[in-house]
């Protein structure tokens, strides 16, 4: 049947029962198809979907959510100032992955900033009212109380990155240690021996692991880990600029730099240019993230690719599994499986370019 959708009995909105009658199946089967259950044959699924299209049936998500004590909404919480969210490609890539995974699900995504104490208190009150089914936490620091608060509130939560190696909250992370080690091994293979690093914020577990990888690569190559070659940054371009200046003042003989993010590498590049240092002739430079910024720098930046969009997608999969574990929770969507509450760690990859 083509053209306009058929009206329900009496000219009103089509019902679940009418879809079932049109497809020749039971009401429960229609419900399973609509909710993405894998426990339906392809033939039956096709019949139900055809009946839905013919009748123009629209699921009553509000009634379904109310009956299951669900809101059909999740929150993406960023405990950082808005300025940092819009300045760093990492956040937009996470959001892109989350949005892509939610595209075919009838769930709303709320973006909430909680960078100040006032915003955190307001967020706590909002979440305590259980206005969302689950929370995605992005950019969590070691002392961040939000994951524990959400646990106390029994709100399913997944974080990007971990606060420590024994994180109890479900998390999706990248191999920061392996990425840091690969970056420095690459610089060593290019003949560099006085290799500095600009760290991210060290209350972020991922930033510490990148430094651990830096140290491990030097030690494996028989090179001394010189603390004067390690400068703290803050994941900002200005922080990278300042750290690079500090390193050059302390060790003007350095011949390579591993920056803990592409944004900081861009700041380091500015300082190197201001000081008359050529990249890569005088100083080789490696970043982390493999963002669009890396490809557009002059020269293009060698960087460690972490699959940030895939991390966003994985976070949704883990969160839906956590929601499904709660009393009255929805079943995982078709093709998704219950995920154990242990960290999901995605691999990183070095992408060589002209800066090395």
UniProtKB/TrEMBL annotation:
Entry annotated with the keyword Transit peptide: no
A GO term, aspect molecular function: DNA-binding transcription factor activity
Domain HTH lacI-type: 14-68
SUPFAM superfamilies for the chain: lambda repressor-like DNA-binding domains, Periplasmic binding protein-like I
Keywords associated with the record: DNA-binding, Transcription, Transcription regulation
UniProt-listed InterPro entries: HTH_LacI (IPR000843), LacI/GalR-like_sensor (IPR046335), Lambda_DNA-bd_dom_sf (IPR010982), Peripla_BP_I (IPR028082)
Record protein name field: LacI family transcriptional regulator
Originating species: Streptomyces uncialis
